[in-house]
Write a structure and sequence with these properties.
Elements (H helix, E strand, L loop, with lengths): L8 H19 L4 E9 L10 E5 L9 E4 L5 E7 L2 E9 L2 E10 L6 E4 L3
Parallel strand pairs: 1-7
Antiparallel strand pairs: 1-4, 2-3, 2-5, 5-6
Length: about 120
């Protein structure tokens, strides 16, 4: 018994378009970075040595990531998948800031904190 499949031209074009779409959309799935800077309320100085955590959405099976701000208040998380993450900045046990962020971020902003 021999099975043959006939695909007409419009179905063939549709199949080709679907393959091209999947190829292009997988190219956009490359890992991305998320960076920000934590500064004083006046924006004049970065705040070093703060703990920054980034919790991925439940659709991404990766653990929460943690880093610290550098001497200029900057931090970066690398090799992220696109999605909405929960960002938290703390000093010791005290949470200073939290936000739900979109990765990749279209308009990065500074996080301004009042220093006491």
């Amino acid at each position: 018994m021999r099975l043959t499949v006939n695909i007409n031209k419009s179905a063939g074009r549709l199949l080709l378009a679907a393959i091209v779409y999947l190829f292009i959309s997988s190219a956009h799935a490359d890992p991305v970075s998320f960076s920000r800077r934590v500064v004083t309320e006046s924006g004049s100085a970065g705040i070093p040595n703060l703990t920054v955590s980034l919790t991925p959405p439940t659709t991404i099976s990766k653990p929460k990531m943690v880093t610290t701000t550098d001497n200029e208040g900057r931090f970066t998380f690398n090799a992220l998948q696109s999605g909405r993450y929960f960002l938290e900045v703390s000093q010791g046990p005290t949470v200073l800031y939290n936000e739900l962020v979109e990765v990749p971020e279209q308009n990065p902003k500074e996080i301004r904190l009042s220093v006491k």
